[in-house]
Amino acid sequence: MKYFIGNWKMFGVPKSINIIKKINFFHLKDKNRKKYRIIITPPYILLETFSKYFKNKKILIGSQNCYQKDHFSSNTAAISPYMLKSVGAKCTLVGHSDNRSEGDTNQMLKNKVNFALKNNLKVVFCVGENKIEKKNKKTFSVLKKQITKVLEKKFNKDNIIVAYEPIWSIGTGKIPTKNELEETIIYIKKILKQIYKKKNPAVLYGGSVDGNSVKIFKDIKEIDGFLIGGASKSSKKFIDIIKNYYR
Ligand code: PGA
After folding, report:
1. SS3 8
2. What pTM, to 2 d.p., does this model score?
3. How far is residue 150's CA from residue 220's CA, in Å, rounded to a whole number?
4. Alpha-carbon distances of 28 from 23, 24, 36, 53, 56, rounded to whole Å
5. What is the average pLDDT across 40-57?
């Protein structure tokens, strides 16, 4: 199963549901539809209405983040996994570099993953090195730390997806070479195997994925799908990625 996940970030108002309706319409008629799953993560304020609308449809609606506590607490503006689940969200991103740069620590991320899984949310756990770490050839050690400090053996691996997003590639149009990316995804799978032994979580790539770059990525069979930012805000661009991936 491949995944095409659209991360809207700070984008969207109620009428933006039309973008997802168009994507859903495409998916319903696509001859490859059984081969992949679409998840869209709109901002918190849209989760309830979007989740309700797509409840019995194939597209899953998820959150972009969650707070590191389970239920209710006195943290202003925080949204817990329990609250996300109660409005119909099916999954949540955790550890996006935007949130890491705003202060998310490994301990906070571990709690987020733990409580999200406890509330039956699928977790898309994001990892990735920055430009300087890449330049200093620290990519593998950074990834190893990010993964092993957060993901635990006791976590339900069937509900974990890992997204490799090199920070220097997010929103920049810069992408890793095919070899680099292949090696990195294989390395991530190796680390995950040390934790989870048999069946590994899926590993996605994210960072400047669009209808063009996906033509390069589609030859890397280890990639289990994509986390798409900018190009997920347009139904046409998002659909083009899926079309070009299977072309
Ligand atoms: P991008 O963002 O596709 O715009 O590079 C990816 C992400 O941040 O998830």
Report:
1. coil
2. 0.98
3. 26
4. 9, 6, 12, 15, 13
5. 97
Torsion of the alpha carbons at 118, 59, 243 and 43, rounded to the nearest 10:
-70
CATH topology of domain 2-246: TIM Barrel (3.20.20)
3-state secondary structure of 125: strand
Q: Is 90 exceeded by the pLDDT of residue 198?
A: no
Find the 175 Cα to ligand 1 centroid distance in Å. Answer: 11
Mutate which of 228, 233, 237, 241 for ligand 1? The one with the most ligand atoms within 8 Å of its CB, which is: 228
Q: For residues 64 and 239, give the distance between their C-alpha atoms in angstroms, rounded to a whole number.
A: 21
In the predicted structure, residue 91 carries a pLDDT above the cut 90:
yes
| Rounded CA separation 34/1 (Å) | 8
Substitution candidate for ligand 1 out of 227, 233, 241 with most atoms within 8 A of CB? 227
pLDDT tens readout for residues 165-178: 999 999 999 999 99
Residue 183 catalytic? Answer: no
The mean pLDDT of 103-116, rounded to a whole number, is 98
CA of 155 to the centre of ligand 1 (A): 26
Ligand 1 centroid vs 15 CA: distance in angstroms? 22
Respond yes or no: is residue 165 known to be catalytic.
yes
